[in-house]
Amino acid sequence: MDELLKAIRQKLADMKKIENSGFSDPAKAAEYFKDKEMLLEEMAKTLDTVTSNQSTQIAALEGTIKSLRDELKTQVKYPKELSRRELMFNLGKGIAAAWSGNHKALADLAFSPNLKSDNWTNPRDVVWGEKGWSVKAPLGEPMGNMATNDQFLINPIYETEIMQDAAKKSVMMNLVRHRPMMGPSIFLPTRDRGGVELHWLTAYGQQIKGSKPKGAERVELKAYTLAGFIPWFDEFEEDVFVDLGQMFVDEFLEVYGQEFDRQCLLADDDPFTGAMAADGTVKATIQGASINDLTWKDFRDAVYKIPAEERKDCCWFLNETVLNHIANIEDTTGRPIWRRPTEAMPGRLDLYPYHEVNILPQIADIGKDEPFAVFMNPKRIQHGNRKGIEIKKFDGTTESLEYGELFLRFRKRDGFLVTRPKNNILILKTKA
Fold first, then answer.
1. Statement to judge: residues 73 and 88 lie in one domain
2. In a domain, 200, yes or no
3. Total structural domains within the chain
4. Across-strand partners of 265?
5. Which residues of 213-246 are buried (b: 16+ CB within 10 A; e: fewer)?
6. Out of 102, 127, 146, 397, which could bridge 133 as a Cys pair, Cβ 3.0 to 4.6 Å?
7. For the CA atoms of the chain, what is the radius of gyration?
8. What is the spatial distance between Cα 379 and Cα 382, in angstroms, rounded to a whole number?
9. pTM (2 d.p.)
């Protein structure tokens, strides 16, 4: 009997350490607290079966369980979010644990091992128990050697926060259409305008002409793995966890934000094709002999090549140096045509919104017959998002042997697809 009460006391001691931290997703918080509520229920039922002369101790334990239940209900209603510093500390602690192979610390932070296979592990299928990691794999599927695994998926909650920061470093991330992907590819239906044909009947008994509208075309959105290496030299101690987490986030955001914009706009089959290289786009040429003769009229004439129903959702994407050229064009009296010196920078380029993208060609680098600006509805670009950011330690490199330089590799999976470019996307270019 004493052993049973001792076990219950230990569980209650563990319960007192529960803090609702790190939940930016209410669904995950609810699931977390549901598990804890079930544990309390189990302990309460166990106490009901106890018959002992230690009634005072049992009553105290029952009171503790009741107070914990009330506390959990309050925490579910008012979840606490991680502060920025707490997020960076936990992320840095997870990276250090992955580096040193501290699986227990990784499990406490909800990191999970990612088995060396083409299909990434679902974090929900990996659990930590008394004997270490275990995977709820389908019958007959090999689990892999979890003890020697050295690549880990970060806590999905931390991934969500990191991607929110990444959107601030990218122009396109908050503009394109995002598609969750459960597999390596999905097929999307796409229709041209006027897919359904209508007919008026002007007399009784008139023949209803059959029509076969053009059906939806299926286009494939594929996801590939994007990998990067972050170099450093030193091992990690607890006093640098915050800085380590911040360094990882800064390095990741700087490169990922620009790569996201490049795949949306400039990529030419590496591995995706962006809007400027897509087949079937509308091409418009400026009137002047070179880019230095560009005027605001070139933008006005170009937009009317896109149908009005599509044009209302379109905007310009161009480099800030091209925008600066337009802003400095003067009239015959020497005054700026686009804006006066005392006016704030307008948010529209001849009635249409614009976005400055620094990876697009600068005006000094634009030669003859070269595209430099895009006019489109950014929702025409589909981004396939396969959840999961993986980290792995790399120390068996030439740089490690010669200079003592170590690397942390990160991997993420994404897909990009430009849909319906014909008559919907316009590319402005210089003369040949």
1. no
2. no
3. 3
4. none
5. eeeeeeeebbbeebeeebeeeeebeeeebbebbb
6. 146
7. 29
8. 7
9. 0.72
